[in-house]
Amino acid sequence: MVENRYSKVLVVEDERKISNFIKRGLLDSGYSVDTAFTGEEALDKIHDEYNLIILDLMLPDMDGFDICAKIRRSKIQTPVLMLTARNSTEDKIKGLDIGADDYLTKPFAIGELLSRIKALLRRSPSIIDGIISVGDLTLNTKTYEVFRNGVQIELSQKEFSILEYLMVNEGVVLTRTMIEDHAWDYEFEGFSNVVDVYIRMLRKKIDDGYKEKIIKTVRGVGYKVKG
C-alpha cells in the first residue's frame, strides 16, 4: 500500500512471536517497522522520528505505563497504541490518562490492529493543552468539559469517552465494534445496539438545535464526526 510507505512504526513487544506477527502484518501493509523488546531499548529508539508507537504493557524491565508517561513528559506527541493481555477498565483508563491514544487487548486480529493504526495516523484535529476542537465543538481532556458554540454540554463519563474517541479521529469512520471496544470492558455483555443508543444520546445533546450536524452516520459501517 503506497499510502503507508512513509509511515514508520515502532513495535515494543517482548514476546518474539507476537512481535514478528505484528511486524509481518505491518510490512505487508506498506509500513516501515522497527522493533524493541525491552523498555530501555524502546526509550533509546523513541527519540527517532516515528509516526506511531505500539507499546506492550508488560515488559521485562518496566511496564508500558511508565514508558508512556516518560514519552509524554519528554513532550513527544507520537500516537501510542497500548497493547496488553489485561482487559480491565481501570487499566484502560490509566493508560489513556497517562497519554496513550488507544488500547487493544490480546488476542487480536491483524485486521483490527491495522484499522486502529489507520485511525490513529489519520487523526486530524488540533490538540493543544488537552483541548480537542471539531468545528465549534470543543472537548477538554483535562477538565472533562465539553462546549458547543460556547455553551457547555453535560455528558456522562461514557458519553464523554465515546465523543473523545470520535473527535480524536475526526473524519475517520469508526465501526460500532471499535467504539464498543474503546468504551467498554471486553467482558461487557450489554444489548447489541448499545453504541447506537449512546450515539443517539450524544446527538440529542450536541446536534439538536444546530443546522450543522457534527456526528454523522456512515450506513452499514459506523460513525464519524466532522466539523
Task: Give the low-pLDDT segments.
Answer: none
Total helices: the number is: 8
Report how far apart the termini are.
29 Å
Beta percentage is 15-25%
Largest β sheet strand count, sense and barrel closure: 5 strands, parallel
Q: Which structural class do the helices and strands define?
A: alpha/beta
What strand order characterises the main sheet? Answer: 2-1-3-4-5
Overall geometry comes to globular
Q: How would you portray this structure in words?
A:
With 227 residues, the chain is α/β, with parallel strands linked by helices. The chain has two domains: 2-121, 3-Layer(aba) Sandwich (Rossmann fold); 127-225, Winged helix-like DNA-binding domain superfamily/Winged helix DNA-binding domain (Arc Repressor Mutant, subunit A, Orthogonal Bundle). 37% of the residues lie in helices and 22% in strands. The protein contains eight helices and 13 strands. It has helices at 16-28, 39-45, 64-73, 89-98, 110-121, 157-168, 176-183, 194-206; strands at 8-12, 32-36, 52-56, 80-84, 102-105, 127-128, 131-134, 137-140, 145-148, 151-153, 174-175, 215-218, 222-225. It has a five-stranded parallel beta sheet with strand order 2-1-3-4-5, sandwiched between helices. The protein has a five-stranded antiparallel beta sheet with strand order 6-7-8-9-10, covered by helices on one side. A three-stranded antiparallel beta sheet has the order 11-13-12. Strand 9 (145-148) and strand 10 form a beta hairpin. Helix 6 packs across helix 8. The chain starts with 7 loop residues before the first strand and ends with a strand.
